[in-house]
Amino acid sequence: MASSASLQSFLPPSAHAATSSSRLRPSRARPVQCAAVSAPSSSSSSASPSASAVPSERLEPRVEQREGGYWVLKEKYRTSLNPQEKVKLGKEPMALFTEGGINDLAKLPMEQIDADKLTKEDVDVRLKWLGLFHRRKQQYGRFMMRLKLPNGVTTSEQTRYLASVIDKYGEEGCADVTTRQNWQIRGVTLPDVPEILDGLRSVGLTSLQSGMDNVRNPVGSPLAGIDPLEIVDTRPYTNLLSSYITNNSEGNLAITNLPRKWNVCVIGTHDLYEHPHINDLAYMPAEKDGKFGFNLLVGGFISPKRWGEALPLDAWVPGDDIIPVCKAVLEAFRDLGTRGNRQKTRMMWLIDELGMEAFRSEIEKRMPNGVLERAAPEDLIDKKWERRDYLGVHPQKQEGLSFVGLHVPVGRLQAADMFELARLADEYGSGELRLTVEQNIVLPNVKNEKVDALLAEPLLHKFSAHPSLLMKGLVACTGNQFCGQAIIETKARALQVTRDVEARVSVPKAVRMHWTGCPNSCAQVQVADIGFMGCLTKNSSGKIVEAADIFVGGRIGSDSHLTGVYKKAVPCEDLVPIVADLLVERFGAVPREREEDEE
């Protein structure tokens, strides 16, 4: 259980003086006129059954704790399971970490691993509990490693270490900034994994519980603690969540057997940089009876066949005690979630089945005192707020300092880029870097007198502080270069299509374009102004080619909206004129004058 003291331990000494009455206060630069954002009880909906309407047998927990602390599915619920659940039953994935199984596995050659069903499942599935994803189709014998990086905050030391890991793999090694403020490194080979895990620990990092049916990286404001207009510094909360989720990087066995992945964020600004509407649990700043805390949204998700925005839980928790409700929500999902059709196992499906009030009741049962307060009448988010651009140079709340937002094209970095970023963070800032959900990087704590010299650094020709209006909103998933599920190539194509479109039209403001290689939508095309989801189709010559379903009209912020398909199965070779026309028709773009022979 989180205490106010544990929150204090995450705060720098200068912040302790800002707390009183054993609680964390929101930091505000000026009063804000906020629109009323109500959080009504979902039980008012006729479609939502009351808690008493759900049969008692449906509320029986489907998992139980076994020897060693592991949670497993009860025998009577082991019918019609999806393949991933069967793999979990065959062997406990976390044993690769808690019992040192990774050390033995790393010594085996791939030929021997593939010859045995259990070890092959270890490599292809169970290692995801350690953040390791075998790229069997694209890079046989090599792995992507996903880190845990709460709030996207990292250090120059950590960045150098990750750069040193991928540097040894040459062309096979690279890194990506993810859409959850996180690092993914590529090219890792199995024999190196034990040493890499030790190296991560030595610099204060972990990859534990970052894949499969686990809680993903806790997201917070990329400007936490430095934004003059922030509502609250999210870093103490995301750090506390991450410490709970991984049991301080030792493994939290109580929540490593969820029915599906689970996302959490803490909102720190009116800008909603954290995208609360697509998280399973979102903490929304709200005051109740004069005390700072959070209203809660639950159930936001994106999946191949369905996507839905998070809904009010009609619940409020004090700011100095946020962990119990996270624990209760996770345990309700773990205990009651279904484990059949993989496309219907995200938490929103459970909420739909039980109804919001019954789901809330199950959470309340799992609270320490069996009590979950109803929501504050309003949260602190200004719904009329215009989202700010964090790219470029901006003054911090700390006098004499600025933060500089750098655009990382489609989030891809090489080892040399990371070494150089670490140097810049040390030379111009405080040795800290911030990752964003748009796959960019923020360098905080730059002395104002050093800004011009930073902007003149050669690396900023590649990672610009002032990218073009179309480039700055560009997001792309891994694509089929490395991902076995991706249908099309995304990163290089996203850059080329954008360059070609820029040659045709000029836009008056930034347009967010997201590319995802398959229906899993890791790049979140449903929230984009224009989104591209990979598929295959026949071109005009009847040839099967890479294509994209086009999504138009997604929104982020208080007026969030998850959009649907605008045009299906457009061959990638035909996208440029279609996107250019869309920008003219929907986003105020103006055609550029072109020489006739350019055609």
Walk me through the structure.
It comes from Hordeum vulgare subsp. vulgare (Domesticated barley). It catalyses: 6 oxidized [2Fe-2S]-[ferredoxin] + NH4(+) + 2 H2O = nitrite + 6 reduced [2Fe-2S]-[ferredoxin] + 8 H(+). Its cofactor is [4Fe-4S] cluster; siroheme. This protein is α+β, with helices and mostly antiparallel strands. It folds into two domains: about 300 residues, Sulfite Reductase Hemoprotein, domain 1 (2-Layer Sandwich), CATH 3.30.413.10; about 120 residues, 2-Layer Sandwich (Sulfite Reductase Hemoprotein, domain 1), CATH 3.30.413.10. The chain contains 18 helices and 25 strands. The strands form seven sheets. The protein has a five-stranded antiparallel β-sheet. It starts with a helix and ends in an 8-residue tail after the last strand.
List keywords for this structure.
disordered C terminus, 5-stranded antiparallel beta sheet, Sulfite Reductase Hemoprotein, domain 1, iron, oxidoreductase, Ferredoxin--nitrite reductase, chloroplastic, single chain, 2 domains, 18 helices
